[in-house]
Design brief:
alpha/beta; six-stranded parallel beta sheet; 12 strands; globular
């Protein structure tokens, strides 16, 4: 039986963890044996799970990052032990996802990948592999990644370093290591990210765009939900926002500004906030902490009237797909790959930071009514973003690489 090994910071948690899990499900139905190696946040999985290191190792790796800007260069011992496990598994395909996140040593990993020459597929969920430090650079409009990083303007942001700036050394090291493989295929999740990779130091490698997929058996319209009744929102026009981490880059400030311009007919609901953030919200925004329950999340999508994604940095947010699958139209900023997920029948694209245009888009959807968009939203999600279809593309890619 053919063997697939995926490597990601988390397993079956958050967007990248669920993507890896659903790829594994598709692989297993195609007669592959599936393994997932991860750093933290273990949740139930259909795969054989391998944890790389432990909590102490993650803390020590984090300390190296904070003090020395050596993210991806800690965890040597745990990565070496993991390499021995790979040798025992003998995978036919090694599939990388996020290899940042304080859990794996990229030097040890890529030295091994170069030596064994197993076909490697690398899904790009963000831009960390092609920069000297950051995972996204749109918000600060930095283009140093095109030539050579130095004096990083985001040194104190994830993966934060509070003292030393190693962005130039990190960039040179990544460029050398990541270009050392002879059998690597890059898989950006959007056309926008594909364009970025074609300008990066990895441009020599073949690129195949595979959009994220979602579980349309869970994310679907007409779900039985008591969310509106529970919160006394029966007569409200609900505007939903969802993020794993809420900050200025995800549009939290924009939602607060938006709340000042809307009357009592509207209700903003934000999912994924911390308890501290919830306490700081204005009274006309309902804050909900992050949930790992996709059923609970789907209920909120389905009962909402519009999904608002005022993001300033994104590659191809699955939240846009999940909302449409639940029959809810999307309003998003013109950011990265976010607009690629919708068309004029399923949502509206607004220029970044234009709160007045955001209000106009909301009013237009309210005037037309959610039902004006719902069928088109569901049809688009079913046609383009079903996990079974999108992740079958990975299986086809694996098969082509090992033939």
């Amino acid at each position: 039986m053919k063997k697939l090994l995926q490597i990601n910071s988390v397993v079956n948690s958050g967007s990248t963890g669920r993507i890896a899990e659903e790829i594994a499900q598709t692989a297993i139905t195609s007669d592959w044996e599936s393994f997932i190696a991860y750093g933290r946040n273990e949740r139930p999985s259909v795969s054989n799970l391998i944890r790389i290191g432990n909590n102490l190792d993650i803390k020590m790796h984090g300390l190296q990052t904070r003090l020395l800007d050596r993210h991806g260069l800690g965890s040597k011992t745990s990565t070496s032990e993991f390499i021995q496990q790979i040798d025992n598994i003998k995978p036919d395909i090694i599939h990388l996802h996020n290899i940042h996140g304080y859990y794996i040593n990229i030097e040890v990993l890529f030295h091994y990948l170069k030596k064994v020459n197993v076909p490697v597929v690398w899904t790009f969920h963000d831009c960390w592999p092609i920069t000297g430090h950051c995972s996204h650079f749109m918000f600060v409009n930095c283009n140093k990644w095109k030539t050579e990083c130095y004096e990083c303007p985001q040194k104190t942001r994830y993966p934060a370093s509070y003292f030393i700036d190693r962005s130039k050394k990190n960039y040179i090291l990544k460029k050398e290591m990541f270009n050392s493989l002879s059998n690597l295929t890059l898989v950006p999740v959007s056309q926008w990210l594909s364009g970025i990779l074609k300008e990066s130091f990895l441009q020599k490698y073949p690129i195949k765009v595979i959009n994220n997929g979602i579980n349309t058996d869970v994310f679907k319209p007409s779900r039985c939900t008591n969310f509106r009744f529970k919160h006394s929102f029966e007569k409200k026009f609900i505007l939903l926002g969802v993020a794993s981490i809420w900050d200025e880059r995800k549009g939290l400030k924009d939602f607060i500004e938006l709340s000042k311009l809307l009357n009592s007919d509207y209700q903003i609901v934000l999912v994924g906030l911390t308890n501290k953030q919830i306490k700081q919200l204005p009274e006309n925004i309902l804050g909900i902490e992050r949930t790992e329950s996709v059923d609970a999340l789907a209920d909120i999508y389905a009962t909402s009237d519009a999904f608002i994604n005022p993001t300033y940095e994104d590659t191809f947010p699955t939240t846009n797909l999940e909302s449409q699958a639940c029959g809810t139209p999307v309003i998003t900023y013109k950011t990265g790959g976010s607009p690629e997920a919708i068309d004029e029948s399923t949502g509206i694209v607004v220029e970044q930071g234009n709160i007045n245009k955001l209000v106009e888009a909301i009013n237009l959807i309210k005037e037309n009514g959610k039902q004006y968009y719902s069928d088109a939203c569901v049809n688009r999600a079913q046609r383009l973003y079903k996990k079974e279809d999108r992740y079958k593309e990975y299986i086809d890619l694996y098969e082509s690489l090992i033939q």
